[in-house]
Amino acid sequence: MSESAATTSDIRELRRTLGCFATGVTVITTLDAAGQPRGMTANSFTSVSLDPALILVCVAKSAPILAAFETGEGFAVNILEETQRDLSTRFATPSADKFAGVTWLAGVTGAPVLSDTLAYLDCRLHQRIDAGDHVILIGAVADYGRNDASPLLFCRGSYGAIAAETAPDFPAVSAAATVN
Ligand SMILES: Cc1cc2nc3c(=O)[nH]c(=O)nc-3n(C[C@H](O)[C@H](O)[C@H](O)COP(=O)(O)O)c2cc1C
Question: 107-131: b or e for each residue (b if 16 or more CB lie within 10 Å)?
């Protein structure tokens, strides 16, 4: 079936199928043309290359924030801890005020690095690839850091965490709040 022939039902089923893939949760951040911090929740993040160090994230063309990522010098990927569901919800909800009360520092690229997350990768925009209804942003990692906290997980529309009592090589997921 061609892409343009997909029905709303097809797309819903495809989203449900893709949602079986468990991921972590990130907030990707940048400065817009006015120098204001912007950010959105993203789980499409993945590593691409170790040498050179490259990562990618996919941003919907329908997201108003996309222009800021395309024009900004760099962007940061902030990987959330299991306690940061509220931060994920905040940055997944359209608002002009997502950064109210959020502590951050400018990273080496100038992109906002959020305080107290599990890890961050501060990147310069390396390549932009047009891909269907999304744009793939490939970032060259300029700086990074991490701590030993547990990650926030996302699978089948729900947040979860690695169960503390399970073996580290086969973690179980305890699901909680469902995202529509
Ligand atoms: C767990 C989770 C993961 C998400 N991942 C992505 C993603 O990878 N790419 C994307 O374009 N939107 C993703 N979204 C949706 C955006 O966060 C949401 O559309 C956001 O409002 C976009 O920011 P804006 O409204 O400021 O443009 C995700 C939402 C959630 C809850």
Answer: bebbbbbbeebbbbbbbbbbeeeee
